[in-house]
Design goal:
44% helix; alpha+beta; six-stranded mixed beta sheet
Length: 184
């Protein structure tokens, strides 16, 4: 959403050049042809658009290894105790939670906590086993009875979470991540 909003601040030629090259994958030559312009003009528009967006878009801070580990520890503590206040303390208004393949997509501590205390209350009593997914902290989540529930992948942003994704295909994912079939 931030990217789409930032695009609206660009002049039309810069916006077109950026979207056609970076999103649609056209070359500067093809874009110049489509816009009845020169390649130099398209490259100049791209350079200005990238500079403008680079200044205007904020990126989540990349946590140090120690910060990421401390954040993962806080997540595990809050989640296993099912303490939504402690969980909310590591979330921001921009933190998202999703659960593919379902359309569930939540943003912010209030929405995430409300779902966890409502429809998501089956997660209460879950246990987590640490692993890693693409360098990010991840956990095998097991139900209170020890059966597998989901692979939880965290997206750290400094000392807070930018996102949490709960992948439910435990039959495929748990063996791929070296997670036991039941809670050890």
């Amino acid at each position: 959403m931030a990217f789409v909003a930032a695009l609206q601040t660009l002049p039309p030629k810069q916006r077109a050049a950026l979207v056609l090259t970076e999103v649609a994958g056209y070359s500067a030559v093809e874009v110049a042809e489509a816009l009845s312009s020169s390649v130099a003009s398209v490259n100049s528009a791209l350079q200005r658009a990238r500079a403008t967006l680079g200044d205007g878009l904020s990126r989540p801070p990349v946590p140090s290894k120690g910060e990421a580990e401390a954040l993962a520890d806080r997540f595990v503590d809050a989640f296993e105790r099912y303490d939504m206040d402690a969980l909310a303390a590591i979330l921001t208004t921009e933190t998202t939670m999703n659960m593919p393949p379902y359309t569930l997509w939540l943003r912010g501590p209030a929405a995430i906590s409300a779902w966890m205390l409502g429809r998501g209350c089956g997660c209460r009593g879950s246990r987590l086993v640490p692993t890693s997914a693409n360098g990010a902290p991840a956990f095998g989540q097991y139900k209170a009875d020890g059966s597998p529930w989901s692979l939880v992948v965290l997206e750290p942003a400094g000392s807070t979470l930018a996102g949490m994704t709960f992948f439910l295909d435990t039959q495929t994912l748990f063996p791929a991540f070296g997670l036991p079939p039941t809670f050890p």
